[in-house]
Write a structure and sequence with these properties.
The chain has helices at 19-29, 75-83, and strands spanning 11-15, 33-37, 41-46, 50-55, 67-72, 90-98, 103-109, 115-121. It has 125 residues and is α/β, with parallel strands linked by helices. The protein has a single domain (11-121), classed as Roll (2,3-Dihydroxybiphenyl 1,2-Dioxygenase, domain 1), CATH 3.10.180. It is globular and about 40 Å long.
Length: 125
């Protein structure tokens, strides 16, 4: 048995200023299901992969840089995800091949400034 043998789930928490922005982006645009509304925290289920939570009470971090990455099976799925984003989403760059990591990806910012990456690991030729 290992230290993680009995865990049920994983939640990644992020500090935010405005929970309404979170509801609009994660519940509305990404269509994630709300798991718990704790008034100061909203926790969403990422089906089959755990949960992500957003809280207004967490202290500000010395290093606020973070990235939520959604991994897709292939490049076409990344392109599809990109095509489904409404114009209100701030896209940092359109999908592209990144040879340094052999991935195909793009980045957006949510309405609270958190960076999200949508990527596929490419198969080695």
């Amino acid at each position: 048995m290992t230290i993680l043998s009995k865990i049920d789930d994983v939640i990644h928490f992020y500090r935010v200023e405005n929970l309404e922005n979170v509801k609009t982006f994660y519940g509305g645009i990404l269509n994630l299901k709300l798991y718990k509304d704790q008034k100061k925290c909203l926790i969403y289920t990422v089906p089959g992969y755990g949960k992500i939570g957003f809280c207004t009470h967490h202290p500000k971090s010395k290093n606020p840089n973070t990235c939520i990455t959604f991994v897709y099976p292939n490049q076409e799925d990344v392109d599809f995800a990109y095509s489904q984003l409404p114009q209100s989403v701030f896209v940092l760059a359109p999908p592209k091949y990144n040879p340094a990591f052999n991935i195909y990806h793009f980045y957006v910012r949510d309405f609270e400034g958190i960076t999200l990456e949508f990527q596929a690991f490419l198969k080695n030729e």
